Known about the structure:
Blueprint: H1 2-18, H2 27-37, E1 41-44, E2 53-58, E3 63-69, E4 75-83, H3 87-97, E5 99-102, E6 105-110, E7 113-121, E8 125-132
Antiparallel strand pairs: 1-2, 2-3, 3-4, 4-8, 5-6, 6-7, 7-8
Amino acid sequence: MRKITLFAIIFLIGMVALSQNLIGYNEKEILKYMKENQNQMTLDNVKNDKFYYLKYSNNSDTQTLLFFFNPDSVCHGVRLICEMSVKAEKVKEFNSIYRKVDETRWIDSKNDNEYLIEMLDEKWSCIVNIKPKK
């Protein structure tokens, strides 16, 4: 029973960290942050001629984390794609750390800037987008 409880705590801590707003960080800072704080996530090598981004997946492929960059290698958007099974936990987490706008949107205030966190339901997954509030 102790092992299950410990696993659940570690899992939930990892879930909280996955929604970390890293907008404004450069590529090297994100690589360092993920290596030090998200060792359960693996960097996937992807090539795309239209978008410049980093892609991370967890070991069970239930979550994918994307960091989108501008031409100066500064993150301008974050997207978390996760299975629907973790949606309720994500909503609870967002309600506790961000200012709630409505059932699917929150505001994060950081460094005198505001960021919109928006959750969208797809058929098989839940998508969380983090971007500067306009």
